[in-house]
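Reminder to self: keep the SMILES exactly as supplied, no canonicalising. Ligand is zinc ion.
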Amino acid sequence: MAVKPSGPVRPGPMQVGNLEIDVVVVPERGSVRLTVERDARITAIVPAGMDSALLVHVVKRRSRWIYDKLEVRVEDAALRPVKQFVTGEGFLYLGRNYRLRIVDEVPVPVGLVRGRILLRRDCLDRAQEELIAWYRHRGGSWLPKRAESWAQRMQAPLENVAVRRLGYRWGSCNQNGGVNIHWATMQLPAHLVDYVLVHELAHLHRQDHSAEFWAAVARAMPDYQQRRARLDRLGAHLWLPEGAQQ
Ligand SMILES: [Zn+2]
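Structure tokens returned for the bound complex:
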């Protein structure tokens, strides 16, 4: 006879049928929230003291949805381009495709000069890292102004914006008014980067994805649904090399 889980849920891995669920307990949460990350990790954010058997029931009830999501994640992984660091390879920056050129004499490892991304030959063995550093640097100087003007419009208490590795999220924020944007987001057209910004800025007021949260997003960006759908499709095609996600 299988041992049925009972008692309050505990944080950490939990097996439900064939699914491994990562349980995160958040005391102030009122209901269960299930997410399927881009690396196919399944997370259940649950209120403190929730009964394990009830969580198992919720997961089972939503298993069709989870399996559908997992399938999409696998398809997404197949869509991701693999880049080669050779002259002629294309890299996106703010929605525009730039050809790479390997060069000998430039002052910085990576630079955008006259419509070409120049990569210095002696950096070839760490090209991926240098390109990511370039996206972070470039995004780090482009984003703050953009974010500040949205923050003003939305009256969001923005303190700073950083471009970093964010695992499988395009953006995140914290209680201190900090907004983080994934470096890979800088490949998107500006109006989609704006959606990621607006989404995170709205979280500075509300941490959840409640109706009030989406209403705030819609007030700032009436066409956010189209942008979000576009981000879902385009996001799957962005360059996000294995091992560079975390
Ligand atoms: Zn969100």
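Points to follow up:
DSSP finds six helices and eleven strands in the chain.
Residues 199, 203, 209 surround zinc ion (CB under 6 Å).
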